[in-house]
Amino acid sequence: MPTRPKPRPSTGNERDYLAALLGRPAVWKLLLLWGTYRDDCDQDAIARRMLTVGVHVTGDQVTALYHLAIEHALRPMGRKSKKQAA
Questions:
Q1: Residue-level pLDDT at 41
Q2: 60 located within any domain
Q3: Residue 25: predicted pLDDT
Q4: What is the number of structural domains in the chain?
Q5: Domain that holds residue 45
Q6: Can you say whether residue 54 is alpha, beta or left, with left for phi > 0 and alpha for psi between -120 and 50 degrees?
Q7: Does residue 3 sit within a domain?
Q8: Which of 1, 26, 41, 61 yields a CA-CA distance of 20 to 30 A from 53?
Q9: For the chain, what percentages of helix, strand and coil (3-state, to nearest 5) are there?
Q10: What are the backbone dihedrals phi and psi of residue 65, each rounded to the nearest 5 degrees, phi first?
């Protein structure tokens, strides 16, 4: 059974990029579809077709984007980063 890759640690730049992407419905559709079918079909081809024009994500970035989106979506709303608290 293949193992799933571990998510990379996210950086501030990735979080800003993700916040901008999450405002786009096509990105949510991409993440939901990829999460559903990642074990059964070529998710990179699906991802490239679903992304809106002007958003370029290579196949090796799809996994990181998926994990960042899940982390961002599940983070408690009241929690502030260290920079915001200071």
A1: 54
A2: yes
A3: 72
A4: 1
A5: 15-73
A6: left
A7: no
A8: 41
A9: 60, 0, 40
A10: -65, -40
Closest CA to 8 of 74, 75, 67, 70: 67
Enumerate residues 6+ apart whose C-beta is below 8 A from 44: 59, 62
CA distances from 78 to 10, 69, 75, 85 (A): 20, 18, 9, 11
* Tens-digit pLDDT profile for residues 24-67: 776 777 666 665 555 455 555 555 565 545 556 666 677 777 77
Q: Which two tokens stand for residue 42?
A: 């070529």
Whether pTM exceeds 0.90: no
Residue 45: its H or E element: helix 43-50
Structure tokens at 35: 């999460």
CB 10 within 8 A of CB 63: no
In this structure, which amino acid lies at residue 55? V
Kindly state whether residue 68 falls inside one of the protein's structural domains: yes
Q: What pLDDT was estimated at residue 55? A: 56
